Amino acid sequence: MIRPLVQIELYKIFKKWRTYIGFIAIGGLVIIIETAMLFEGQKSLDFMTRNLRDSFAFFGNLLNGFLISYLILNMLAVHIPFLITLVAGDLLAGEATAGTYRILLTRPVSRFQVVWSKFLAGNIYTLSLVIWLGIVSLGIGAIMFGFGELIVIGKDSIIILDRADVLWRFLFAYAFAALGMSVVCSLAFFFSSLVENAIGPIIATMSVIIVFIIISAINIEIFRTIRPYLFTNYILSWRLLFDTPVDTAKIVEAVIILLGHIVVLFGITAIIFKRKDILS
Amino acid sequence: MNSEEKIIEVSDLTKDFKEVKAVDSLSLNVIRGDVFGFLGPNGAGKSTTIRLLLTLIKPGAGTIKIFNKHLISERKSILKDVGAIIENPDFYMYLSAFKNLEILNRISGREIGSKRIMETLEIVGLSERADSKVKTYSHGMKQRLGIAQALLHDPELIILDEPTTGLDPQGMKEIRDLITFLCKEKNKTIFLSSHILSEVEQVANRMIIINKGKKIVEGNVRDLLNASDLKVSVEVLEIENAEQLIRQSQWADKLISRNEHTMIFNIQTDEIANLNKYLVENNFSVTAIVPTKSLETYFLKITEEAV
């Protein structure tokens, strides 16, 4: 029974105009960034490597599709969550606003089936958004810049990855990014179960993410203590995939923590939804 | 099939919203084949009761059995044979009527097919607008679509909460005719909540009146009406002579007032024919007899008494 329910939820999601805002925004943003990099990218790369140029000589096509895609993926934590909450925040609250809970929940399906199918559909949307990001950033990057070695500049290190060694890292990085965004989806979905208007979950989710990111960015003792408990601390752990060697243990730990968040958030949402009196 | 088979059996149903008792120890029975009127003033607890019957909210106490099955434990199997409209008919506005019904049909897990969907839309007069988005529909059209979704899977029990709200008089009549048709021709059992009392009076065979969540009275519509006096306005030619005759007859005590063309009597329903006969036998031409007291007056009286 879940499969048709998920299909229905996806149909409903993709019949709404707001669903395409995310795809249009990402597509547009990537084109703008890559066009800007076409004209100004070399300057930016020179600026990024200014301190290293005294000690190293750089050869080859360093301003390439991999580098641009890597930089774009870094924007993920702040920008894409907003696009996800537009849809995920509406999944349950939207039914309450429209009054359609009444026709939906008087059908011979359990509430768990309803909430589970909506959750899966929301995550499929999230996954599709991240896949779209990967396709457009790598695709347009390849067309405009071609591919080459990837230069990853850290605080106190520089890693240059061979062209043949990069693509698999991107595939895993996008998979990891999808997992991180799934936590955002789960959070928006949770807020969506509490209210009867989709604006609330969008604002609440973005507020949580912004507050967590700020706490993570401010380097004082009390925030350092809290940081390991904030999911935003792990959303950008895909960067670990571009280290050499890759710290698998840290990545697995981040995956487990993010999965834990998803399970807990969905569990609470399911309990709330199951007990909810439908008064809308 | 037992003709007295209970389709809905509610016992001591109670639902509180914080301090407010929305439904208070309510018990009722709906028999197979009934058009069961569910009456009460605004805020009486009608919609809350219907939401309880459809598991949209959970009871604080009491039990509900539908088709002789416990609602909580056998919810899915019960809802397969229940169609319902609850208050305003709300749909996915960005989808067409056909698509809305198709989705609801798939959720119900039934393989009905496009033909049945179109047939149902035909019944409610929406087949020509099947592909229009619901957001382009008027309130009346949405109400009809609400009825269509309730009938789509051919349920045994149809629960209708204010089904004629927002409809024009013609639309209201069509719904009443549809209810009668479904009950008599299709053997459906209908639970009809309404504040339009004449609607219940015209289509229901049994009814319950509730107020402040409590049952006030339950029974056959006709018995309940007969239990109450009616005010009957009788229009007759030569009214002065007719009044004289009445003043000297057994009807004298029942004559309340007289104006230029009519006399007003306070009598019971089954006495109307005798009064008419008496006047006609005494060579008076009765041009109209209008009962001015109906279920509405009875309803007002009984709900006021209960306050």
Note down, in words, how this protein is organized:
The complex is a heterodimer of chains A (280) and B (307). By secondary structure, chain A is mainly alpha-helical. Chain A has one domain. Helices cover 70% and strands 3% of the residues of chain A. Chain A is built from 12 helices and 2 strands. Chain A has helices spanning 2-14, 18-48, 65-73, 76-88, 93-98, 101-104, 111-145, 167-194, 199-217, 221-226, 232-235, 248-275; strands spanning 150-153, 158-161. Chain A has a two-stranded antiparallel ribbon. In chain A, a hairpin with a 4-residue loop joins strand 1 (150-153) and strand 2. In chain A, helix 2 crosses helix 7. The two termini of chain A are 26 Å apart. With 307 residues, chain B is an alpha/beta fold. In chain B, 35% of the residues lie in helices and 29% in strands. In chain B, the strands form 3 sheets. Chain B has a 6-stranded mixed beta sheet, with helices on both faces. Chain B is globular and about 70 Å long. The mean pLDDT of chain B is 87. At the A-B interface, helix 1 and helix 6 of A face helix 2 and helix 3 of B.
- Unreliable stretches of chain B: none
Total domains of chain A = 1
What portion of the residues of chain A fall into strands of 2 or more residues? under 5%
Number of strands of chain B: 14
Main sheet summary of chain B: 6 strands, mixed
Overall mean confidence score, pLDDT of chain A: 90
Q: Give the proportion of residues in helices of chain A.
A: over 70%
Topology of chain B as a string of helices (H) and strands (E): EEEHEEHEHHHEHEHEEHEHEEHEH
The number of distinct helices of chain B, counting runs of at least 4 residues, comes to 11
Class by helix and strand content of chain A?
mainly alpha
Kindly report how far apart the N and C termini of chain A lie.
Answer: 26 Å
Strand content of chain B: 25-35%
- Rg of chain A computed from alpha carbons, rounded to a whole number of angstroms: 21 Å
* Class inferred from helices and paired strands of chain B: alpha/beta
Biggest interface goes to: A-B, 25 and 30 residues
> What would you report as the Rg of chain B, rounded to the nearest angstrom?
23 Å
User: Which of globular, elongated, flat, extended, rod-shaped describes the shape of chain B?
Assistant: globular
End-to-end distance of chain B: 41 Å
Q: Please provide the count of β strands of chain A.
A: 2
| Tally of individual helices of chain A | 12
